Amino acid sequence: MRKLSMDELNRLSAEEFRAIEKLPYILILDDIRSMNNVGSVFRTADAFKAEKIYLCGITATPPHREIQKTALGADETVDWEHAPDVVALIAKLQAEGYTVIAIEQVEGSTSLLDFQPKKTEKYAFIFGNEVFGVNETAVKNANYCLEIPQYGTKHSLNISVTAGIICWHYVAGIQ
């Protein structure tokens, strides 16, 4: 076994990536404090061909040095938009046919183990603040909530880790 060289990985150029068809899912970052987390989610969105990222509330927007540090250029390849009000965004996306899913631990949540995405559906996944999670109003307006099963003592994951798990599960589920 040996590591592959960058040439062998056949990476798309930024222009090629912008031109390819993306998968029908959106990531919503609501009130994310850490710009490193924002940049990491951009990189994950690039890796898993997300359609777009919405940056809501206090979430910082590119260009910013702290976002670029972890995005490694993905902030220039992934489509994004700032939306000041997450609840208005939820209503807009639902009107456009998206199933809006909050990633949160709530009564009646669906375990990620039971989530089987459909190729024919469009999804929007909401990720909330590092301390407070997805705000209660967004939870109530989402179509439903997904929860990642956790077995240790902490029962919380970093938002960028959570986004990676959700994106991978979605992409693997529609293959």
From TrEMBL:
Q: Which residues form the tRNA/rRNA methyltransferase SpoU type domain?
A: 26-168
Q: Name one GO biological process term.
A: methylation
Task: Give the residue spans that cross the bilayer.
Answer: none
Q: Could you tell me what this protein is called?
A: RNA methyltransferase
- Superkingdom of origin organism: Bacteria
Any one Gene Ontology MF annotation carried by this entry is: methyltransferase activity
Q: What Pfam families has UniProt attached to this entry?
A: SpoU_methylase
Alphabetized UniProt keyword annotations:
Methyltransferase, Transferase
